[in-house]
Write a structure and sequence with these properties.
about 160 residues; two-stranded antiparallel sheet; two-stranded parallel ribbon
């Protein structure tokens, strides 16, 4: 797993097996302000993600920078950040929460393009009939949900334990 940050917040979380390389984002801020602040944010994010993976953290406090998202994708991300640990929503539910009922497919595309998975918990978005997709793969999505106490049955809706 990898984390990239600027002085404004985490801009990228790379999951294990993610084909997208970590990019150098130094150009997103001047080097003088970026170095110490960005490094501190990236270190804090890595620590919080490790605590989450160990079952010792349920919420994240590190800032997340969502600059560059379209207004729709930003609305989806902000609505998703309100879904609590151990809960799931369907793509259709999240579309409604983001103010775009009927845009479930567009929500799926927004989740596929989520630059900060886990911090913006796209693993908590499930298909109406089962697991749904996830950039880190189905096995990782199941592990993350199981960590939060959610089991996804074959062909059934997600339900918290």
């Amino acid at each position: 797993m990898g984390v990239t940050a600027t002085a404004r917040g985490v801009v990228r979380v790379v999951l294990p097996g993610d084909a997208a390389p970590m990019t150098d984002l130094a150009s997103q801020g001047d080097d003088a302000s970026r170095d110490a602040a960005a490094d501190a944010i990236a270190d804090a994010a890595a620590r919080e993600l490790a605590e989450y993976a160990a079952g010792r953290r349920r919420t994240f406090t590190v800032p997340v920078c969502l600059d560059g998202l379209t207004p729709f994708r930003l609305a989806v991300a902000l609505a998703l950040r309100q879904v609590p640990y151990g809960r799931t929503v369907t793509y259709g539910d999240l579309a409604r929460r983001a103010g775009r009922p009927g845009a479930a497919r567009a929500v799926g595309q927004a989740m596929a393009a989520n630059p900060v998975p886990i911090l913006v918990p796209c693993h908590r978005v499930v298909a109406a009939g089962g697991l749904g997709g996830f950039g880190g793969g189905a096995a990782l999505k199941r592990r993350l949900l199981a960590l939060e106490g959610v089991e996804i049955g074959t062909g059934s809706r997600a339900a918290p334990r």
